[in-house]
């Protein structure tokens, strides 16, 4: 079999061989590119979902502590909660926008005021 392969390579002209390799490369790219993109998108979505879940948990943990700090204005408490969550997410290599974090803090504060069992 090796002899047949070397005989074919010797008899093939350079142009035909280059055309074959270029076609093989193009077909491989066309077939693998969508699969690779899908895998990358799935990984990004998984990271975002983990970040959102962790942000919910962190907001739920910090809101009761900040609610006790009556010396801070409500906007200061909210800013401090956003900073706290953002800092913890960054240490884990995750990130969310400040608007998303603000929504998570507001939801946690709403849940703190009215527990889910009511």
Describe the structure.
The chain crosses the membrane at residues 15-32. The chain is an all-alpha fold. It has one domain (2-113). It has helices spanning 2-11, 14-67, 74-91, 98-113. It is rod-shaped and about 85 Å long. The chain starts with a helix and ends in a 5-residue tail after the last helix. The model has no long low-confidence stretch (mean pLDDT 86).
What is the structure about, briefly put?
This is Phage holin. The chain has 118 residues and is mainly α.
Question: What topology emerges from the helices and strands here?
Answer:
Blueprint: H1 2-11, H2 14-67, H3 74-91, H4 98-113
Helix pairs in contact: 2-3, 2-4, 3-4
Transmembrane segments: 15-32
Protein name: Phage holin
Keywords: Membrane, Transmembrane, Transmembrane helix
Number of strand segments: 0
- Number of helical runs? 4
Q: Compute the gyration radius: what is it?
A: 28 Å
What summary fits the major beta sheet? none
- Give the overall form: rod-shaped
Count of individual domains: 1
Please report the distance between the alpha carbons of the first and last residues.
77 Å
Q: Can you give the helix content as a percent range? A: over 70%
Mean pLDDT comes to: 86
Helix-strand pattern: HHHH
Unreliable segments of 5+ consecutive residues: none
């Amino acid at each position: 079999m090796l002899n047949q392969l070397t005989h074919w390579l010797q008899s093939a002209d350079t142009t035909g061989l280059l055309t074959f390799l270029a076609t093989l490369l193009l077909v491989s790219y066309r077939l693998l590119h969508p699969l690779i993109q899908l895998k990358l998108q799935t990984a990004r979505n998984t990271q975002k979902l983990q970040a959102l879940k962790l942000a919910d948990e962190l907001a739920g943990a910090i809101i009761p502590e900040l609610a006790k700090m009556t010396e801070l204005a409500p906007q200061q408490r909210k800013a401090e909660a956003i900073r706290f969550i953002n800092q913890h997410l960054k240490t884990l290599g995750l990130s969310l926008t400040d608007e998303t974090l603000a929504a998570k803090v507001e939801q946690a504060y709403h849940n703190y005021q009215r527990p889910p069992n009511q």
